[in-house]
Design goal:
The protein contains ten helices and eight strands. The chain is α/β, with parallel strands linked by helices and about 250 residues long.
């Protein structure tokens, strides 16, 4: 068997050249704090000179952590999800984690495949905004890693679940436009689809409750369906009415 002409430098090579133990090199690589500054500087300089690269896979096996987390969302081009991904990426960077983003396109099959792909322990945790998967399916998958649910569709999965108060938020929106003197308005995005049913239903409830409390007649507003909630669909919904209806005092999207 022939030897490689240029074998990859290892920790022993660094230790030998720097005149320290392998444990010291390991402590420097892991950024262990209790290493003398002069020793740390010498080891880092030697690492650069010999071109040593830590074996992350081996370190992950020893620690039991991958330092990867996953975010699964329907469509990363939707402003809400792109802003969400950016915020999670910022926090992941702060914690020294790597973020993996998967698009599910709101398909139950893709959502299921995404979850099953992470079953092997390739990530330390998963954040997901499911569109078609049920709470029962999520419970049965039992990924063995922390899972955080986003959105309003599922409330019975027994998992950490983050969402907003859609009814309360819609009430505030309606109060705001009424306080500004609006007498007529369009509600854009009132759609009974899998992607919008849960949040849309709750927001519509909030609008109607606030309007009723203020004595606003239901004839004062028009509902314009748009699904999914993208800039293009919102534009199309409003444009389709501009030529045939009198423009309202306010639009709620």
């Amino acid at each position: 068997m022939t030897k490689r002409k240029n074998p990859r430098p290892n920790m022993m090579d660094v230790a030998k050249k720097a005149g320290v133990s392998q444990r010291t090199v390991s402590n420097v690589v892991r950024n262990y704090q209790h290493v003398a500054p002069q020793t740390r500087e010498r080891v880092l300089k030697t690492i650069a000179e010999v071109g040593y690269r830590p074996n992350n896979a081996a370190r992950q096996l020893r620690s039991g952590r991958t330092k990867f987390i996953a975010l699964a969302v329907p469509d990363i081009t939707w402003p809400y999800f792109s802003m969400l991904a950016q915020a999670i990426q910022t926090e992941a960077n702060r914690l020294g984690l790597t973020l993996i983003v998967r698009e599910t396109k709101g398909s139950a099959n893709v959502e299921r495949q995404t979850l099953e792909n992470f079953y092997t322990g390739s990530v330390d945790g998963l954040i997901i905004s499911p569109i078609e998967l049920s709470g029962q399916e999520l419970r049965e998958l039992d990924l063995g890693i922390p899972v955080v649910l986003l959105g309003e569709r599922i409330h019975d999965a027994g998992l950490l679940h983050l969402s907003i108060d859609n009814i309360g938020a819609a009430r505030q929106m309606m109060d705001h436009i009424l306080d500004r003197g609006a007498k007529s308005f369009w509600i854009v995005g009132d759609s009974d689809t899998m992607a919008t049913r849960s949040a849309g239903k709750l927001r519509k409830q909030g609008f109607i409750e606030a309007a009723s409390l203020r004595g606003v007649n239901e004839n004062a507003w028009m509902q314009l369906p748009a699904s999914p909630w993208t800039l293009g669909n919102g534009y199309q919904a409003v444009s389709s009415q501009l030529g045939t209806s009198t423009p309202p005092d306010a639009i709620i999207c």
